[in-house]
From TrEMBL:
Pfam families referenced in this protein's UniProt entry, alphabetically: DUF1993 (PF09351)
Protein name per its UniProtKB record: DUF1993 domain-containing protein
Gene3D superfamilies xref list: dinb family like domain
SUPFAM superfamilies given in the database record: DinB/YfiT-like putative metalloenzymes (SSF109854)
Domain of life: Bacteria
Organism: Sphingopyxis panaciterrulae
Coiled coil: none
Length: 178
């Protein structure tokens, strides 16, 4: 259950994020906005830039999966220095997620999960509460921040880019005419 609540969601969002980055790179080339401008862009002075949001998006999925029982997660100690590097972080995360054995997550949603923050705070939760209240919200925070940075920079993204994975569920004949 924990695997099915998390890994598909992480996979969908990271795949969509990869598509958003590809669109941003193409748009930037056509509009005189360089990779470095986009990499360093942020929503507010005290927020992390795009490259960090990408690294944190991947890291949130990797850390949560590890806390839930997976092992061998890649480590991205540094932000990527270009779009190819950000795409590589996403691809490596997706490959690792795809290789996970769902059994590693176990089936005990009530088992304890503990984690600490760098500021010394320690949290004790049931596994299901951890997924619902921390793992998924933290992951989506960074996914949305990356999307918002790209939008802020002028990249023409829309909800279809954010939730592109939903197209696999579209009923035939119901898409609006272009």
């Amino acid at each position: 259950m924990l695997h099915s609540l998390t890994v598909p969601a992480w996979r969908n969002a990271l795949t969509a994020l990869s598509g958003q980055l590809a669109k941003a790179l193409t748009w930037g080339e056509s509009n005189g906005v360089g990779e470095l401008q986009l990499l360093a862009a942020r929503l507010a002075p005290d927020m992390f830039p795009l490259a960090t949001q990408i690294r944190f998006s991947c890291g949130q999925a990797l850390q949560a999966a590890t806390r839930l029982g997976a092992s061998g997660a890649p480590d991205f100690a540094d932000d990527a220095s270009d779009f190819a590097g950000m795409q590589a972080q996403i691809a490596q995360t997706l490959a690792w997620l795809d290789a996970l054995d769902p059994a590693a997550f176990g089936d005990d949603a009530d088992r304890p999960v503990e984690f600490s923050l760098p500021n010394g705070m320690v949290f004790d939760l049931r596994a299901l509460d951890y997924v619902r209240d921390w793992a998924l919200p933290q992951f989506y925070f960074h996914i949305v921040a990356a999307y918002a940075i790209l939008r802020h920079m002028g990249v023409p993204l829309g909800k279809a880019d954010y939730a592109s994975y939903m197209m696999q569920h579209l009923r035939p004949g119901t898409a609006p005419a272009a």
